[in-house]
Design a protein that fits this description.
Blueprint: H1 3-7, E1 18-24, E2 31-32, H2 35-44, E3 57-63, H3 69-77, H4 81-88, E4 95-99, E5 102-110, E6 121-129, E7 132-137, H5 142-152, H6 160-194, H7 201-219, H8 221-231, H9 239-305, H10 320-344
Parallel strand pairs: 3-7
Antiparallel strand pairs: 1-2, 1-3, 4-5, 5-6, 6-7
Length: 346
């Protein structure tokens, strides 16, 4: 298989659902491989131990929407049952677990075509062994695509644990971009709020808040889970790789704190918008009340004088019309004075 053919693999994957596969080593350039070559390599290295932390290893990225992907992984990868349970248990909370010498990770990332919608978040399942990294997803994700581009450009990690660390840092960088984008949107909404333009801002703030809440809910367990794991790392993981994973965990913690601060800021803006809307509604209701009160005297007198009965006062008076007008004006002014006085009182 030529390099061009390997790079031409589309997001649907090959016959085994493999989107891309690379043989990574410090001593040789990155070598793209297909699912058949990967199966042969794994069979040839099935008895290798995990002592050589920087020995050649495989990175295989699968499309789980392909019917054969999970079957190929189960048949050739040699991953523990915990990995396949994570694929089917329905829980998408971020976590990193250890099963003997294998790390099982469930990470959450945004879609490749992320559009600041709460539903644009998907899950990535990862299995990490000394000589193998399996990543699997159902929808294209930004972090994996960025890592794939970096590997093709020659910026490949030196070990399977380093690949997991690089993937986490790429994911953290993507979250930083999201936080920056949300911050810019909140700044614009805040400026429009201060300028008095309230067109649908509460709905826009609600969408952004739901997005941050979903991201934080899916990502928040990750630092704690990784911290517990790194207290007892696998024997094949070097101290340098463990420290890099600790640093990546700290980056996630910083991003999550920024997200929490943005949520509080959005909450305050929503309260400000709600108060402004309530104040505008109160002004409208007051104007409607005043108009109703001012129209009350003339409506009452018009009803009384419009009755078709005898004894209508001032019916024979030459100035009866102006007398009635004066009475209506007096009652109207008195009603307006009472309404305005009640408005000014605390």
């Amino acid at each position: 298989m030529t390099s061009t053919d390997a790079h031409g693999l589309n997001y649907g994957g090959d016959a085994a659902g493999l989107i891309c596969g690379y043989l990574l080593s410090d001593a040789a350039p990155v070598q793209p491989i297909d699912s058949a070559q990967a199966a042969d390599w794994l069979l040839a290295h099935a008895g290798d131990g995990g002592a050589a932390a920087r020995s050649p290893f495989l990175w295989l990225h699968f499309n789980l929407s392909h019917a054969q992907a999970a079957r190929w992984i189960e048949r050739h990868a040699g991953l523990p049952g915990t990995f396949f349970e994570a694929l089917t248990d329905g829980s998408h909370s971020t976590r990193i677990e250890r099963d003997d010498d294998t790390l099982i990770a469930v990470l959450n990332d945004v879609h490749f075509d992320f559009a600041f919608e709460p539903l644009d978040v998907a899950t990535l399942w990862i299995g990490v062994a000394p000589h193998l990294v399996i990543t699997a997803r159902t929808q294209p994700l930004r972090s994996v695509d960025a890592l794939r581009t970096a590997v093709r450009d020659g910026r490949s990690p030196h070990s399977s644990a380093a690949l997991l660390e690089q993937l986490m840092r790429t994911q953290a960088d993507g979250l930083v971009d999201i936080v920056r984008g949300v911050t810019q949107r909140i700044d614009r909404i805040e400026d429009e709020l201060l300028a008095g333009r309230l067109d649908h801002k509460r709905a826009r703030l609600g969408v952004l808040r739901r997005l941050l809440v979903r991201l934080q809910r899916l990502l928040a367990p990750e630092p704690a889970a990784l911290f517990r794991l790194l207290q007892r790392p696998p024997a094949w993981m070097s101290e340098d790789d463990a420290q890099e994973l600790r640093d990546a965990s700290e980056e996630f913690s910083v991003v999550l704190r920024d997200m929490q601060g943005l949520q509080e800021r959005i909450k305050l803006l929503q309260e400000e918008v709600a108060a402004s809307v309530q104040e505008a509604n109160s002004r409208s209701l007051f104007v409607l009340t005043v108009v109703t009160v001012l129209a009350l005297p003339i409506n009452i007198l018009a009803g009384l004088f419009g009755m078709n009965v005898g004894g209508i006062p001032l019916a024979e008076n030459a100035h009866g019309f102006w007398i009635v007008v004066a009475l209506v004006a007096a009652f109207t002014l008195a009603s307006a004075w009472v309404a305005l006085r009640a408005r000014k009182e605390p």
